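Thought: the user wants the 3D structure for the chain below. I'll pass the sequence to the structure tool as-is, report back what it returns, then summarize two notable features.
Action: structure_tool
Action Input:
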Amino acid sequence: MHSEQSLRDQVALATGRPQDGAPVLQLKGDASNRSYLRVGRWPDSHVVMVMPPGPPRSEEASKGGPPDELPFLNVQRYLDGLGVRVPRILRYDTVAAMMVLEDLGDLTFERALESGSHESLYGRAVDLLARMRAAADARPDPGCLAFTRAFDEELYTWELHHFREYGLEAWSGKTPTTAERAQLERAFAGIAGRLAAAPRGFTHRDYQSRNLMVTNGELVVIDFQDALQGPWQYDLVALLRDSYVELAPELVDAMIDRWLLEYGRAASHTPERRAFRQLFDLLTVQRKLKDAARFEFIHRVKKNPGFLPSVPASLRYARAAMERLADDGDVVALREVAVRYVPELR
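Observation:
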């Protein structure tokens, strides 16, 4: 554990201002293996990100060895270059594994929703997302890690099996029969193949209400270090099918239309709405089953039960998307087995 003085020293080196006696406050850090500490009093404060020892690695499933550069640093530079508002980095001490960042305050998008207009806030988040994707589509960068890794069949399949393991099996305490397992394998392969075949581009991977900050009225994107290549709809599913905030179906429909309009404006071509919405629903099934299982994994393996309250919403989203895809053979086959072990999907 780092001493408070070592954190103050990092901020002093980053700012050129002594920090003697500055208060140090541990900030809440979701499911990450990094910790965040505020040094000083807001708004004249800074955040120190403390990383675990060893080479930088992703906490999400990904392929390949450790990257040459810290992913947070690499992707931050790319997004900043696109004009996306991201946290400013003042100092990175590789030996101490500490980074000094601007302090964005405590108002997450999730908290802003408690007192702000949902339509207005989501409109801004959707516009930002559409413009970010269009800008990245226009300016791909092979030096950015997000362009060296992708949601492929293998990754989608791994996540679906994560649901089988920590959803179906862990929750029910039972194992699917050989025939059920074969049916699941076929359904998973069909879903993963179709998702992997969709056009890919820069994808944040977890663009949701806890990974957007509202700072001085601006929306700031955080937690982007696991960015990769994925379908247009992926980040939109993360935002509009957020496990922490449930939205009315009418608002979701309006925001999908808004994304298409804004992306079309910025990229000068618009994806076809019907096919776009179908893939949005298919991704919802895949992503929300994975999320529900991930929350259970974090509870069982990381001994953190804090995400369990978000499991029911994740399953409600998956069920609603399955109902919208009632004529999709792969989804029907998956659901047929899943409901025997996860009654919430019935």
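Final Answer: Structure generated. The beta strands are 24-27, 35-41, 44-50, 89-93, 98-102, 200-203, 212-215, 218-221, 228-231. Residues 273-300 form the longest helix (28 residues).
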